[in-house]
Write a structure and sequence with these properties.
The chain is an alpha+beta fold. It has helices at residues 10-17, 66-74, 87-92, 101-105; strands spanning 21-22, 24-28, 35-39, 42-47, 50-54, 76-81, 109-110, 119-120, 125-136, 141-152, 157-158, 161-162, 170-172, 178-180.
Length: 191
């Protein structure tokens, strides 16, 4: 079966086929107010320099989302990673509306070390980022952040390294679907 990208809902096809996607819970502060919002169009882009990217779409009114406005104005934001125990709080911040999403989600806004944006204290991993660049891609804006500081809870570390056995990250599927990283297996790469 083949489909015409011009006549189909590409969001449903892309978000249903490209799974699981990690979730960036992006916190920011600026002209749009203190903000916390999830983005599943997110990943690592580079390690030297360390760069993460997420791609917010447009707000329902066609304007930039608050996270993007804040990031552009202040040139900073924090990417907080979401674990299964934070799933309901994260989903609460996906709602479009006014108010402080930290309060709405019942999570703590902790001060960052290098940027003005707050981080989520309950998140076991947070990356403080300075805006590196943005790229308009039609309905979404790829937003690149250079990592300038990293927070990791001791519970997810072994010998000062990330221990994926201790970190049950949340992944986004289609519609209301999510998955976790509980089921794991290893495959050795060829030499």
């Amino acid at each position: 079966m083949e489909f015409d990208p011009e006549s189909e809902s590409m969001y449903r096809w892309l978000s249903g086929a490209v799974v699981p996607r990690p979730v960036a819970w992006v916190s920011s502060d600026g002209p749009a107010g203190r903000n916390l919002a999830p983005y599943s169009f997110f990943n690592v882009m580079c390690v030297a320099p360390p760069v993460l990217a997420f791609a917010p779409g447009q707000a329902p009114d066609g304007e930039q989302k608050d996270t993007l406005r804040n990031a552009r104005e202040t040139e900073s934001f924090v990417v907080n990673l979401v674990t299964v125990d934070l799933a309901e709080a994260m989903v609460a911040t996906a709602a479009t509306g006014d108010g402080d999403e930290f309060d709405l989600a019942g999570v703590t806004a902790a001060p960052a070390t290098e940027v003005d944006a707050p981080r989520v204290a309950e998140a076991p991993v947070s990356f403080e980022c300075r805006l590196h660049d943005t790229l308009e891609l039609g309905s979404n804006t790829a937003t690149f952040g250079r990592v300038v500081h990293f927070h990791a809870d001791e519970s997810v570390l072994t010998d000062r390294k990330m221990d994926t056995e201790q970190f049950d990250a949340l992944g986004r599927l289609a519609a209301d679907g999510y998955c976790t990283t509980r089921d794991r297996f290893t495959l050795s790469r060829p030499d």
